[in-house]
């Protein structure tokens, strides 16, 4: 038993009997243990039934784990030793105050925790509905589980059970044997948030599975989970890149608010830096028919943007340029847009991007930044969760407070002059070259 306790490091202890009759030896031995030996008083007592005069025991403990050193030690002294009272007082003084016990979690708290812990199930159910195109099928007309199974080539029983789960989330509703879309379910249609559901339930779902690894090590969770940094992965997986860009466009219902928040009518040329497929720039060009646009992004993205702009008949007013914004951006614009770009990068890369914009801008130009700032007053905001999302799915990505954007801009040679709110906790930040107007 002793060998087993030692192997498992369980309550290894020694007992020492003090047999000297010289006065104060026990006290000196106690001082040796609590001083140089680094042990802590750990209780004790007097047993009148041990030996002719009874026996005093003084307990000591240590956090040491060195091989051969006890976790606990006992001093055994014949008789009722007067050191016992002092030892017990020292024991109480050395013990941390006991916290009040937490009240047991109520049913409501337990239910709420279960709802949060099963959030992954919700994500995957919504992603499955998006992959199968349930929103598009039910938008055309209500259908039974069997009919939807035929339309989507799915298993009828399991699809029915998933639809029942989606009904509990108010995504669909049941009318007799048929399913119909709710207003919430309408957002899962193509052109709405269908690609967002596919993205969050797809590669972003996999990347968040490595969040704990990322928190422990500081390494990027996306790269750990999928083997490549985010943008490198998208470059090598064009189908996932299409879903990604579709999600970026679909998740931008607030784009229409930008031309209302910022007056572009006096801008001759608006340069959209890393503008993706041109979704925001199209809103601006339609709102201000007299201005021209320049969409600047990586060559492959720029080619796709050209097709989208052509569909809207805007190519005659918009030049599409391929390039790398970490090296340069087109010169001579009156307004430069950075929409959801800076949150992808750490401060060092942000300063490089901002410096490239500053070099390309005339002194009279404006810089318009669209981001989701983190509130500092405790106001609930999507930015809190998105800040973790940016850490997981970008190298150095993060959301920032207004003041953090102000400092970045000041370092890059800009003055932040205006902040205006948009929907979904987004905001438009306007900056001008330092010393300008």
Automatic annotation (TrEMBL):
Keywords: Methyltransferase, S-adenosyl-L-methionine, Transferase. Residues 115-188 form the O-methyltransferase dimerisation domain. InterPro entries: COMT-like, COMT_C, COMT_dimerisation, SAM-dependent_MTases_sf, WH-like_DNA-bd_sf, WH_DNA-bd_sf. One of its GO terms (biological process) is methylation. GO terms for molecular function: O-methyltransferase activity; protein dimerization activity. Coiled coil: none annotated. Residues 208-414 form the O-methyltransferase C-terminal domain. Gene3D superfamilies: 1.10.287.1350, Vaccinia Virus protein VP39, Winged helix-like DNA-binding domain superfamily/Winged helix DNA-binding domain. This is O-methyltransferase.
């Amino acid at each position: 038993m002793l060998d087993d306790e030692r192997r498992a490091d369980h309550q290894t202890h020694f007992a020492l009997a003090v047999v000297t009759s010289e006065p104060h030896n026990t006290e000196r031995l106690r001082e040796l243990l609590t001083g140089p030996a680094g042990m802590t008083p750990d209780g004790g007592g007097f047993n009148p039934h041990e030996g002719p005069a009874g026996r005093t025991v003084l307990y000591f403990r240590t956090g040491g784990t060195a091989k051969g050193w006890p976790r606990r030690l006992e001093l055994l002294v014949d008789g009722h030793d007067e050191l016992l009272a002092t030892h017990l007082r020292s024991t109480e003084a050395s013990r941390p105050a006991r916290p009040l016990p937490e009240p047991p979690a109520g049913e409501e708290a337990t239910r709420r925790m279960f709802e949060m812990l099963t959030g992954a199930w919700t994500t995957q159910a919504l992603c499955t509905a998006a992959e199968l195109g349930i929103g598009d099928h039910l938008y055309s007309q209500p259908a039974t589980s069997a009919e939807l199974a035929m339309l989507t080539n799915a298993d009828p029983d399991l699809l029915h059970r998933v639809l029942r789960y989606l009904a509990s989330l108010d995504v669909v509703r049941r009318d007799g044997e048929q399913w119909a879309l709710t207003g919430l379910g309408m957002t899962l249609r193509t052109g709405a948030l269908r690609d967002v559901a596919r993205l969050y339930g797809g590669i972003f779902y996999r990347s968040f599975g490595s969040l704990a690894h990322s928190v422990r090590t500081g390494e990027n969770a996306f790269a750990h989970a999928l083997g490549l940094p985010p943008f490198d992965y998208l470059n090598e997986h064009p189908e996932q890149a299409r879903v990604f860009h579709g999600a970026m466009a679909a998740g931008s219902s607030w784009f229409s608010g930008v031309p209302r928040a910022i007056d572009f009518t006096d801008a001759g040329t608006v340069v959209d830096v890393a503008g993706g497929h041109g979704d925001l720039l199209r809103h601006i060009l339609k709102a201000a028919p007299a201005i021209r646009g320049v969409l600047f992004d990586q060559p492959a993205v720029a080619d796709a943007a050209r097709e989208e702009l052509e569909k809207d008949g805007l190519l005659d007013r918009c030049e599409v340029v391929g390039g790398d914004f970490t090296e340069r951006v087109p010169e001579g614009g009156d307004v430069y847009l950075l929409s959801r770009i800076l949150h992808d990068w750490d401060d060092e890369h942000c300063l490089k991007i901002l410096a490239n914009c500053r070099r390309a801008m005339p002194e009279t130009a404006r810089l318009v930044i669209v981001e989701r700032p983190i509130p500092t007053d405790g106001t609930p905001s999507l930015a809190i969760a998105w800040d973790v999302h940016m850490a997981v799915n970008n190298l150095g990505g993060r959301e920032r407070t207004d003041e953090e954007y102000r400092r970045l801009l000041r370092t890059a040679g800009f003055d932040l002059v205006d902040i205006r709110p948009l929907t979904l906790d987004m905001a438009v930040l306007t900056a001008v070259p330092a010393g300008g107007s």
